[in-house]
Structures are given as C-alpha cells and as structure tokens.
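task queued by scheduler; priority normal; single chain, no ligands, no partner chains; default sampling; output format set to structure tokens
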Amino acid sequence: MKPIHKKYFATVALTWASSLVLCFVVYMLVIVPQQESKKQIEKDMAEAKRKYRSTVKAVQKDTDIHLSKEIENLRNQLRQFVIDFDDSANLTFDISRIATENKVTSVTIRSKGSDGFLAMPNCKYLCEHHINVGFTAGFNQFASFLNALERNHPVVFVDEFAITRSEQGDSDHQAFLNIVVCVSKGHDS
C-alpha cells in the first residue's frame, strides 16, 4: 500500500477510535445515570400507584360505610312518615286508642272510598290512605285529640276537619276529621 493510503487509513481509524471513545464517555456520563434515574422514577411511580389504589379502596370502604349509615338514617326518617301496607290495618286501632285517651266519645272510623287507598301522583312506591273520623267532644278534647293525632308515628296528616257547635251550650260538639296517612305499597324502599 502506498504511504498516503496508510496515512489516510490511520487518520480515519484514529478519528473513529476517538469518536467511539468520546461516545462511550458520553454514554457513561449522561445516559447511564439517566437510566438509573428512570428506573428509580418508575419504582417511585409504581409505589405511588400502589398507595393511590389502597387509598381509593379505603376511601371507597369509608364512603360505602358512610352512605350505608346515611341510607339507614333516611329510612328511619321515612318510617316516621310512612306506614307499611301490612301495618295500615292497625291504624284504626291506634286512632281509637288515641280517642279513648283523650276522652272523645261516639267515635266512628271509616276508610274513604272502597278500600281507602288512593294513588299518589308521580309516586311509584307510596299511596295515600284516607280515613274519615267522626266523634263528639268538647273544644279542649277536640284540640288535644287533634294534637295527639298529629304527633302520632307514623305521621298522620289532618287533611280537613270540621266541628259543629252543640245547641246545648258547652256540652259535646259534633266533629269530623279527614285523615291522610302515607302507606308503602309493599316494595322495598
């Protein structure tokens, strides 16, 4: 080979060798630490994801427990206003008992309509139970009977009432009440 070619090949070989050495040094100083940093970041990210999942599970359990308690509280509040369909038959006995306790006489209790139950508009699980109550009482007994009915559980709504003054002065007056009670149709609420 000619000496020019040897010199050319030596220069090319030296350039390639120095470039490879330079690339190796850059790789060792820049790329390797970044890869280790990347592995550490991935490890930290995996740990953060694990903590996040466990926190979400814990929060969901707490939320589920909280929501369950809230639903139970709401159901208990609903029971104050709604009577079960099966228990609606006992309502007449409750009204009679309240009337007796308040010294109301000549009590007549009848369901309004054929069975006393009327559908509530836009209400799938509840219906109204209408009851007509007629009795004789003084004004004080009327007021105490009405007050006792409205404090009853489930809540009894007095839709209308009328009292006709007795022609015999302060003796018992004829009274009439139209009572409405919300009744569950038997579905789970």
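post-processing summary
- The mean pLDDT is 84.
- The radius of gyration is 43 Å.
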